[in-house]
Design a protein that fits this description.
It is found in: Cytoplasm. It comes from Acetoanaerobium pronyense. The structure is a single chain. The protein is of the alpha/beta class and 296 residues long. It is 40% helix and 12% strand. The chain is built from ten helices and eight strands. The strands form two sheets. The chain has a six-stranded mixed β-sheet, with helices on both faces. Helix 7 packs across helix 10. The longest helix is centred in the middle third of the chain and has 21 residues. It is elongated, with a radius of gyration of 21 Å.
Length: 296
């Protein structure tokens, strides 16, 4: 693999056919729900938020769930919570693996239920469950969060984008019904910085672009926003600035060298992406509210 730090540019544009169908399903079923929960990745809340959702939701109440909070920078996580509050959105930080934050989310939904009951009573209508639609782009943890809410495994989950299939109503004890939908991306990703963040997080499948290219861009990104991470994780003592120098140092430290002294780029790239996505590189948030003054 040859890489030119200055001249190489990755162009990512991905919109499978089933995404268009899912968007149509969401629009069709919004008339059935009272509240929308949008799941985003706490490490990149705006980049993992579908801009089509607000257009589709319109006046319906929306709760933003920042999942994978355990993998995000705690200072920036608080900044994001304050940011959503300033935009009049309710937000909840959640770890879908441990269930942390789920009680806060249920408390938020219970408050929405009370408002629904009061509205139904004023109109002389019978009391019914609060109907909630759960939306989000692929691989942000929608199914895992639903499973934590209901306390059992009811929807197909996995660590690959697009695992959840079709539309599913999930009835809970009490007065709550959830509508799960597959992950949906927008038709064209024009901002390549956003596209790269989605690739780093695994929201865009690794087979869409070569993982070696994603890994190189991730090294560039981390070197810019949190340079100490790579040196600490891979025990690199030298002060390296070149991407290729960093790659060579990591390869030597991990023994990712092929016969002929060639770097095993595939193994190195797979390891780097896995360690970033699993949090082994540390708590890294890819964007700050200061970057999005007019985001929502």
């Amino acid at each position: 693999m040859n890489y030119d730090d200055k001249n190489m540019e990755i162009v990512i544009n991905w919109y499978p056919g089933h995404m268009k169908k899912t968007k149509e399903q969401i629009a069709e079923n919004l008339k059935l729900v009272d509240v929308v929960i949008e799941i985003v990745d706490a490490r990149a809340p705006i980049s993992t938020s579908n801009p089509d959702i607000d257009e589709l939701v319109k006046t319906l109440p929306k709760v933003v769930v920042l999942n994978k909070e355990d993998l995000s920078d705690p200072i920036l996580l608080k900044s994001w919570m304050d940011y959503y509050k300033s935009k009049n959105y309710e937000s909840v930080a959640v770890n879908s693996l441990t269930g942390k934050g789920i009680k806060d989310l249920l408390g938020c939904l219970n408050n929405k239920s009370k408002a629904l009951y009061e509205n139904l009573a004023r109109r002389g209508r019978r009391r019914r469950p609060l109907r909630v639609m759960v939306v989000g782009i692929p691989n942000v943890g929608k199914s895992s969060i639903i499973n934590k809410i209901i306390g059992k495994k009811s929807t197909q989950t996995g660590d690959r984008p697009g695992v959840t299939k079709g539309k599913q109503w999930v009835k809970l004890k009490g007065d709550l019904e959830l509508l799960d939908t597959p992950g949906v991306l927008w038709p064209k990703i024009e901002d390549q910085d956003v596209a790269l963040k989605l690739a780093f997080l695994g929201s865009i499948k690794d087979d869409v672009i070569e993982i070696e290219e994603i890994a190189v861009e991730l090294i560039k990104y981390i070197s810019k926003v949190k340079p100490s991470v790579l040196s600490e994780r891979f025990k690199i003592e030298e002060d390296l600035e070149s991407v290729m120098d960093i790659i060579e140092a990591i390869a030597k430290k991990r023994g990712y060298i092929l016969p002929g002294a060639e770097i095993d780029f595939l193994r190195l790239s797979s390891t780097l992406l896995h360690e970033f996505r699993s949090g082994k590189l540390g708590k890294i948030t890819l964007e700050s509210p200061d970057d999005f003054n007019k985001a929502i």
